[in-house]
Amino acid sequence: MMRANTKNIERLKDRKNAVILAHNYQRPEIQDIADFVGDSLELSQKATKTDADMILFCGVDFMAETASILNPDKKVLIPDFGAICPMSQQLETEELLDAKRKYPDAEVVLYINTLAEDKAHADCICTSANAVQIVELMDSDLILFGPDSNLAHYVRQRTSKEIISVPEYGLCPTHHQITESDLLDAREKHPEAKVVVHPECIPEIQEAADHIASTSGIARYCKASAEKEFLIGTEVGMLHRLEKEIPEKRFYPLSIYAVCPHMKMHTLEKVEMALETGEPEVTVRKGVADKAREAIERMLELSR
Ligand code: SF4
To answer: Is the pTM above the cut of 0.85?
Structure first.
């Protein structure tokens, strides 16, 4: 395979009036050529504001689907169609519908890490940046929440509402494998460092942390803090953004094994190829997209 030509990527972007959106967990070289790098909430917000004709989404399936739902008239591409988030596969639509039948008074708040078919059955979507805020703003005191049971734990600690997890044990394999022994080892090596983690981490890691936040919340916290060293408990791609934006501080991964293989599937070569060929395109069936859009737009409205 030929090496990617970043000048050609720029030329193709201009020619096709394309914008490149990249998640914080992307490879460093992808983050560096992106027009915008952010977390799921920021990327969804960005996707509603672009006047580009084409969106090249360097993230996983549900993120590109969300961009397509919010931009039915634009072409949305993903460099590698195989970038599928395992968490988004953990919610079975039938299980969600069963739970809705069992708890008719509950409202459904689904994490953005879900497929469009499931979003279409939600009252509102949330991200890790606004999950507590969204749950609090729902009318009902009973919330069906899925699929991440670790994020559900985080929300439960911060609301008096009853949160029922659907499925009972959904999780992100990348965050779930950051263990308490990783934390002990990292603290031993960097005793001065503050521990900042993502709410997809297991409850034991959340409880031991100095701060819990979405990836962009992690960046804001590290920037504002007077501390100089941080242990970061999320996917390791986040360290590139932190080192680039806050070069005067030191960042260490809580676990070097916290790598999401799905996020890392995109390469510069695949970016160049997607821009060149206009494929692979991400589309969502109209009926499903229309219903899912209502739940996503409700989140965007409530997050303003
Ligand atoms: S880091 Fe976890 S939640 Fe994010 S895409 Fe990878 S598997 Fe899915």
So the answer is: yes
